[in-house]
Amino acid sequence: MPRPAKKKSANPASETAPDLNSPVRARILEAFSEKARRSGIRAVVMGELATELRMSAMTLYKYFPSKDELVSAMIDAWAHELAALDALEWDKVQDCKSALEMLARWADAWTASLSNVSPAFFGDLHRDHPVAWKQFQARLDGSKWAVAKYFMPLLRQDISPVACLMMLDRLVTQAADPSFVEQIGISRQESVRIALSIWGGGALKEPTILPVAKPSFPRAITPGFTPPGIKF
Predict the structure, then answer these.
(1) Who contacts 143 (Cβ-Cβ below 8 Å, separation ≥6)?
(2) Which of 93, 91, 44 is closest to 70 using CA atoms?
(3) Band of the pLDDT at 124, cuts 50, 70, 90?
(4) Over the stretch 24-56, which tens digit does the pLDDT of each residue have?
(5) pLDDT above 80 for 89
(6) How many CB atoms within 10 Å of residue 35?
(7) Is 124 helix (H, G, I), strand (E, B) or coil?
(8) Cβ(137)–Cβ(122) under 8 Å?
(9) Alpha helices, DSSP H only, in 115-160?
(10) Can you give the pTM of this predicted structure?
(11) Which region among 7-11, 21-25, 39-43, 210-214 has the lowest average model confidence (pLDDT)?
(12) d(Cα 60, Cα 66) in Å, to the nearest integer?
């Protein structure tokens, strides 16, 4: 008895798995990532992206069946880029000074990698793509705690190490925030180094500060002047 003919898929693009190493896939991912980082994920319309890449929407959906899959792939690719930052020679850290200097290099590299990413991107990621957001947060948290283990032996014994590390995270996050550095009128790198020096001067066994560039404050602090964003 002859076998019944196989039913054809309603979606031709789903019949074969896309090649993950295809240059076409890489081109789609690169174009999407660049536009999403610059203008936000919501600003990227799949049909318009296909047109810009001079391909059909069917071709685009063959490689990425949904925007969610594109976002997830972008976060994966970004994680590989950032993994190099965690390869700094932390095992050569011997004292508080060298540890804080290494942390400054790590923070500089991280903040530089985020400097061209718009706030809209993170807002869209958190709101519309919760799985990819958790994926990003897990990658970031993993990097932070991988670094934190090198500081545990260097922290003061009379204060909570968890509190010290959480405060470090808050300080650096605030110092690297684009709106914050715009308010106080200094570079992001300078802001982060000041935050690290404040933390290193109080949390480490051997109080340590980092050299920073000559202050570039927007104005002299005079009686009656309140820095922007600060309320007394």
Answers:
(1) 82, 85, 86, 110
(2) 44
(3) very high
(4) 999 999 999 999 999 999 999 999 999 999 999
(5) no
(6) 18
(7) helix
(8) no
(9) 119-128, 130-148
(10) 0.69
(11) 7-11
(12) 9
Q: Which CATH number describes the domain made up of 17-75?
A: 1.10.10.60
Q: Which residues contact 177 (CB under 8 A, 6 or more apart)?
A: none
What DSSP line would sit under 153-216, residue for residue?
GGB-TTS-HHHHHHHHHHHHHHHH-HHHHHHHTS-HHHHHHHHHHHHHHHHBSS------PPP-
Domain ranges across the chain: 17-75, 85-203
Q: How far apart are CA 10 and CA 177, in angstroms?
A: 48
Question: What is the distance between the alpha carbons of residues 83 and 3, in angstroms, rounded to a whole number?
Answer: 52
Query: pLDDT by residue (tens digit) across 132-164?
Result: 999 888 888 887 888 888 889 999 999 999 999
Angstrom distance (rounded) from CA 198 to CA 164: 12
**Token couple for 224:** 């009656």
Task: Say which CATH topology domain 85-203 has.
Answer: Tetracycline Repressor; domain 2 (1.10.357)
* Domains 17-75 and 85-203 equal at CATH topology level: no
CA 123 to centroid of chain Cα atoms: 13
CA dihedral 128, 130, 135, 141 (to 10 degrees): 110
Q: Which amino acid is at 113?
A: S
Residue 187 has pLDDT above 90, yes or no: no
